[in-house]
Amino acid sequence: MRMAKMAAAVAEHGQDAFRKLFKFYKRRVPPPDFSDVIDFAKGLRNEKVFAAKLNLAAISERDARGAGLHPIKDWKAYGLEGYPGFIFISNPFLLGSQQHWVTQSLKVYPQKPNVCNLDIHMAPAETENIWERSAERIRNKSGGKSEAKTLLEKLRWVTLGYHYNWDTKTYSADRHTAFPADLARLSGHVAAACGFPGFRAEAGILNYYHTDSSLGIHVDESELDHSWPLLSFSFGQSAVFLLGGAKREDAPTAMFMHSGDVMVMSGASRLLYHAVPRIVSPPAGFPAPLGPPEEDTPEDSLVSKVPEEDWEVCTRYIEASRVNATVRQVLAPGQLFSAAANSRPAVALSGESYHQEETTGDENPKPKRRRSSSADS
Ligand SMILES: O=C(O)CCC(=O)C(=O)O
Ligand SMILES: [Fe+2]
């Protein structure tokens, strides 16, 4: 008994700072103390948080409105002491326009020819119309735990544009489909406001989280040109996000990401390790971020009113889930893929080493069930 305890203590001691904090925030019983988690929704109240300068002339108010965004001058953008190039924009979306992005993420982006985790173990015909096969059942769910999961609830990731190969950790010319035009436009606006005009949205990863999901420690380095930022858009439930250093074991800073929040990792922060140890409910009294859309949207707006019956399904879904979209430019302007870029060895299987789902609630959980990429588990 004594020996076992000591061994546990040594193992604990030998763990690096990032893994320790990841486990700390992932813990269910007892729940962790969240008081060190930076909340950008509280503005400059944290001494490490400062106001970030944006390029106010990067896009017109009309263009911003057309993408469902407030004018840039009204964005609350922050930097974080010690993380040059990191910009956190606290929900720049117009009231109601998040509805569009949530609906696209659940209804449209999972459609073929985009690629999702369900494709790995299911025939193409079965993973078509994920929304249609799931919507009615989600609408009628009573909330009982025993109800079988719909395909939409089994969705873990969707890739867009250059489809990320989870096995080889590469993008390639032969795995490419058109990147969604609306998300590309939104990304271009955000990148321009942050000092990166000319950003091209070439690859995207959508991650779908439930209350027990987490995303392991990683760095996004597969893009061939790292001088462009990595953009992140979050919707639905909140998350604890850990932003680490250039080395995997460097101690991270914890922050909340709420619905509508946009994060930009650029410059010296582009290649920092990061992870999502925990999904959390939005704070009480958090302003309803997903209300009805404002009326006077421009005619050519990307963001249109979501039909009520669709929104009903999305509401049910995001009551207990979070969707995050990361958008990346892969190539330098004019750059092409070389054969060498595609020949790295296989290291991860189907994204399963990143995407984890907890099955137990205690501090010493049973071996983790990897986030399933199969539809039949
Ligand atoms: O869900 C998030 O906030 C992070 C997602 C992420 O790191 C990724 O897709 O590479
Ligand atoms: Fe990432």
UniProtKB/TrEMBL annotation:
Subunit structure: Monomer. Interacts with DNAJB6.
Reactions catalysed, as given in the entry: a methylated nucleobase within DNA + 2-oxoglutarate + O2 = a nucleobase within DNA + formaldehyde + succinate + CO2; 5-methylcytidine(34) in mitochondrial tRNA(Met) + 2 2-oxoglutarate + 2 O2 = 5-formylcytidine(34) in mitochondrial tRNA(Met) + 2 succinate + 2 CO2 + H2O; N(1)-methyladenosine(58) in tRNA + 2-oxoglutarate + O2 = adenosine(58) in tRNA + formaldehyde + succinate + CO2; an N(1)-methyladenosine in tRNA + 2-oxoglutarate + O2 = an adenosine in tRNA + formaldehyde + succinate + CO2
Cofactors required: Fe(2+)
Record localization: Nucleus
Region described as Disordered: 347-377
Matches recorded under Pfam families: 2OG-FeII_Oxy_2
Source organism, top-level taxon: Eukaryota
Main location: nucleus
GO biological process: DNA repair; oxidative RNA demethylation; positive regulation of gene expression, epigenetic; regulation of translational initiation by tRNA modification; RNA repair
PANTHER family documented for this protein: ALKYLATED DNA REPAIR PROTEIN ALKB-RELATED, NUCLEIC ACID DIOXYGENASE ALKBH1
Residues in Fe2OG dioxygenase domain copies: 200-331
Source organism of the structure: Paramormyrops kingsleyae
Family annotation (SUPFAM superfamilies): Clavaminate synthase-like (SSF51197)
GO cellular component: cytoplasm; nucleus
Signal sequence annotation: none
Sorted UniProt keywords: Dioxygenase, DNA damage, DNA repair, Iron, Lyase, Metal-binding, Multifunctional enzyme, Nucleus, Oxidoreductase, RNA repair, Transcription, Transcription regulation, Translation regulation
GO MF, one example: oxidative RNA demethylase activity
Coiled coil regions, renumbered to chain: none
Database matches in PROSITE patterns: FE2OG_OXY
Name of the featured protein: Nucleic acid dioxygenase ALKBH1
UniProt cross-references to InterPro entries, sorted A to Z: Alkb (IPR004574), AlkB-like (IPR027450), AlkB-like_sf (IPR037151), Oxoglu/Fe-dep_dioxygenase_dom (IPR005123)
EC number: 1.14.11.33, 1.14.11.51, 4.2.99.18
Alphabetical list of Gene3D superfamilies matching this protein: Alpha-ketoglutarate-dependent dioxygenase AlkB-like
Entry note: cofactor: Binds 1 Fe(2+) ion per subunit.
Biased composition annotated in UniProt, kind: Basic and acidic residues: 354-366
